[in-house]
Design goal:
This protein has helices at residues 16-22, 64-85, 105-108, 139-158, 167-171, 175-178, 229-242, 268-276, 293-302, 317-324, 355-367, 370-388, 390-406; strands at residues 2-7, 28-34, 45-48, 92-96, 114-117, 161-164, 181-183, 201-202, 208-209, 215-222, 247-253, 285-289, 305-308, 329-332, 348-350. By secondary structure, the protein is α/β, with parallel strands linked by helices. Helix 2 (64-85) packs parallel to helix 4 (139-158). The relative contact order is 0.12.
Length: 412
């Protein structure tokens, strides 16, 4: 029996497709460990670990996240030690680097291959730091950012192989470690995220939005600056003023997945509505909150133009899934978006920091003749099918690497 252990704070996360596929392999047992699992995968035995904070709170502020990662890694080590004492020993471990969970596993199982998923390596320049608002970064900010990578570097040293989803994200990592990192995107289910006939969306006030209306969509896990929510809201003012029939549909939660909350408390939705509400026709601005995955796909089929904005940061699945649905995409001219989107070929690129230009890009998308809309949408879908498809690119890339390097059995 070949045993695979996944470790991810919010399992299944990026490993959902790979874990599900491995459960179908004869002779392969799949386990997973998480502190806050996001769901179950049939056939995967899920183990929980509890976070034990051993710190006394008296630490340098640069080390707050480092201490949290050390506690996370220590908690995973303790839980895995209990598994080992019960006779469990994996043949392969696959985990996410983001929370420090992989820090100490080589001390427990030194000969077990460890594969890490590395999404992001912090940079003082050229990525998210100093991007918004644009401007110089202090030496103390650079010191703080450099300190953040202590955990990344320790895990990079520990793993036998790392995986990064895009070329830009891989190349953020220091050159001595890049040879250890393979670029494999986890894959987009293009059969699910596909063009189709949309269903009407019923709003909380009972009104209905249907495909015969001019609908612009914006979606993020959470409505926050890292995904350009503030820019989108400011762009909505000239957009809706110039397009009296346009309906703006916004999906996402009120938390903060990446950046800080606004100064003074509250959330970014409330803050931007307080700033712009008097200038917005709120009867045409619709906040749906977080939506199920199937509802997101339906929104993409309903949309005339979909807006995706991001700092130079981790690329969202939502952008690739929107493209796979054939929607006309308007996206920020930022990395790693430009690794995927070519202006005028499979989408439109707009400057992140210019709300007027973002609005103009959306107007251009809405004004496109049908033939041009179809050409752009078809090219967008073709890009995802050819480069990021789950069944032909993502899963085969993962499975072949795991077979060649670590002896994962092939399916019979």
């Amino acid at each position: 029996m070949y045993k695979v252990l996944f470790i991810h704070k919010f399992f299944p996360g990026q490993f959902v497709h790979l874990a599900r596929r491995l459960t179908r392999f004869p002779g392969v047992q799949v386990d997973a460990m998480a502190s806050d699992p996001a769901g179950n995968v049939a056939g995967v035995r899920l183990h929980h670990y509890d976070l034990h904070n051993q710190g006394d709170g008296r630490i340098h502020p640069y080390l707050t996240r480092t201490e949290a990662a050390v506690c996370q890694g220590q908690s995973v080590l303790a839980a895995c030690t209990l598994l080992a004492q019960g006779g469990y020993r994996p043949d392969l471990i696959i985990g996410h680097h983001g929370w420090g969970e992989l820090l100490y596993l080589k001390d427990l199982w030194p000969t077990v291959p460890l594969v890490g998923y590395f999404e992001f390596y912090y940079q003082g320049t050229g990525a998210d730091v100093g991007f918004d608002p644009p401007g110089p970064v202090s030496l103390f900010d650079l010191a703080r950012v450099r300190t953040l990578n202590m955990v990344n570097l320790t895990q990079l040293e520990a793993v036998d192989r790392g995986v990064s989803p895009t070329r830009w994200q891989r190349n953020l990592h220091p050159s001595p470690f890049r040879e250890r990192l393979t670029q494999i995107h986890e894959g987009i289910d293009t059969a699910f995220a596909s063009p189709g006939s949309p269903e009407a969306v019923t709003l909380s006030d009972g009104r209905s939005l249907s495909a015969d209306q001019e609908i612009v969509t914006y979606v993020a896990r959470d409505l926050e600056p890292y995904r350009g929510f503030h820019i989108m809201m400011r762009a909505a003012v000239p957009l809706l003023r110039s397009r009296p029939a346009t309906q703006l549909v916004i999906a996402g939660g009120d938390g903060c997945s990446y950046g800080p909350p606004p100064d003074g408390g509250g959330n970014w939705r409330e803050r931007l509505l307080a700033e712009l509400g008097a200038d917005l026709p709120l009867d045409r601005v619709h906040f749906l909150g977080s939506v199920p995955h199937a509802d997101f796909i339906n929104l993409m089929r309903l949309s005339r133009a979909h807006l995706y904005l991001t700092y130079p940061f981790v690329l969202s699945w939502s952008m690739l899934e929107a493209m796979s649905c054939g929607v006309v995409l308007v996206a920020s001219d930022t990395r790693p978006v430009t690794e995927v989107v070519e202006h005028g070929v499979n989408g439109l690129l707009v400057p992140f920091h210019d709300p007027a230009a973002v609005a103009s890009g959306l107007v251009a998308a809405l004004d496109m003749p049908m033939a041009q809309r179809l050409r752009l949408g078809n090219a967008a879908r073709r890009t995802v099918v050819e480069r990021y498809d789950l069944e032909t690119i993502g899963l085969p890339g993962w499975l072949e690497m795991l077979h060649q390097e670590f002896g994962l059995p092939r399916p019979r």
